[in-house]
Amino acid sequence: MAGIQLRSVEKRYGDTWVLRGIDVSIADGEYVVLVGPSGCGKSTLLRSIAGLNDITGGAIHIGARDVTRVSPRDRNVAMVFQSYALYPHMTVRENLAFPLKIRKDPPAAIQAAVAEVAGMLELGALLDRLPGQLSGGQRQRVAMGRAIVRRPDVFLFDEPLSNLDAALRHHMRVELKRLHRRLGATVVHVTHDQVEALTLADRILVLHQGVVQQVGPPRELFDAPANTFVATFLGSPAMNLLPGRVDDAGLSVGGVALGWVDGVGKAVRGDVTVGLRPTDVVAAAPSSAAGASPWVGAVDVTESLGAEALLHVEIGPHKLVVQVPEPSPWRAGAQVQVVPRRVHVFDPGSGRRL
Ligand SMILES: Nc1ncnc2c1ncn2[C@@H]1O[C@H](COP(=O)(O)OP(=O)(O)OP(=O)(O)O)[C@@H](O)[C@H]1O
Ligand SMILES: [Mg+2]
After folding, report:
1. Helix (H, G, I), strand (E, B), or coil: what is residue 248?
2. 82 exposed, middle or buried (CB, 10 Å; 0-12, 13-18, 19+)?
């Protein structure tokens, strides 16, 4: 196994920049999840690590080796794509054995490796089937098995679970966690799924327009997002952003003084962008002394999500999403007192956390 070092990696197609100045060290055995909006460069970064596309600047090291100009087959990485790309005319057994066959491993070793991986992924009963005779989840496990059987230094997963239904996704997510613990492999995993990112990652890397926005443990990105992009990208429903101001009396939003709400640094003064998570708010009846918040608004729309509900609250010109437990007493049109428990404060120009 081996770690990965990305040193000032950049990728351009003509004058179109796809990756810019990517500097990240991934430790041996670490599980890194790569997230970001569509087109931000996630697959390009993964393909660059695999050697499936060349980079226009910088260097990539895997373990102690500079692999920048090493061909994909000599990098000892395995990539699992969203489309499983199994060989349709080969059985599961032959699909699993294929990477070892082209490596010219001895037949007995191939047989043993296939049996071990089939056991690990519960594919034993499916070995003689063709991919067309498998469910999506089973195919996905075969694709994973074909990657594992080579015992690569690094696994690269590009949205490997996105074709599965919710139940199977959850199942495979847990399997991936188990597998990672068992193999101790270094993994870079691209996903659009927040839960996948938060549950699997040792560290999450957020990419936006080819630039790394923040890298850190899920909790850290959630509790202390480096900028408004990360703040609104992670967390569902998204963090509310409002224009505000901090003076000697603390924070005010739309002229309403909220005081020194937790999260407002004592040294901050001037115009700010206020970030408020829907979960960092308490909703109370306007007359109650729950927080005696001067922030009172009207419920515009409510959405029930089962265990909790989202209230869309209008306070003056601002709209705020607030999460409350179900059963919720709030109906559209009701007046509600909004008590912010914790806020994040950002520079309104750069979007950086203050
Ligand atoms: N061969 C190419 N020539 C020119 N531009 C390309 C090429 N391949 C990719 N791009 C561009 O690079 C950018 C990043 O693409 P990439 O596939 O890495 O995005 P992504 O983050 O994986 O997106 P998604 O979440 O939709 O899979 C996109 O704007 C894409 O159009
Ligand atoms: Mg992609």
Report:
1. coil
2. middle
Q: Looking at this protein, which amino acid is placed at residue 98?
A: F
**Tokens coding 193:** 């799924």
Total-model pTM: 0.90
Distance 204 CA to ligand 1 centre (A): 20
- Give the distance from CA 10 to its chain's centroid: 21
Cα separation, 154 vs 150, whole angstroms: 11
Residues whose beta carbon lies within 6 Å of some atom of ligand 1: 13, 16, 18, 36, 38-44
Q: How far is CA 102 from the centre of its chain?
A: 34
The model's pLDDT over 63-101, given as tens digits with 9 standing for 90+, comes to 999 999 999 989 999 998 877 789 999 999 999 999 999
Mind listing the domains of the chain with CATH numbers? 4-233 (3.40.50.300), 240-346 (2.40.50.140)
Which amino acid is residue 31, in one-letter code?
Y
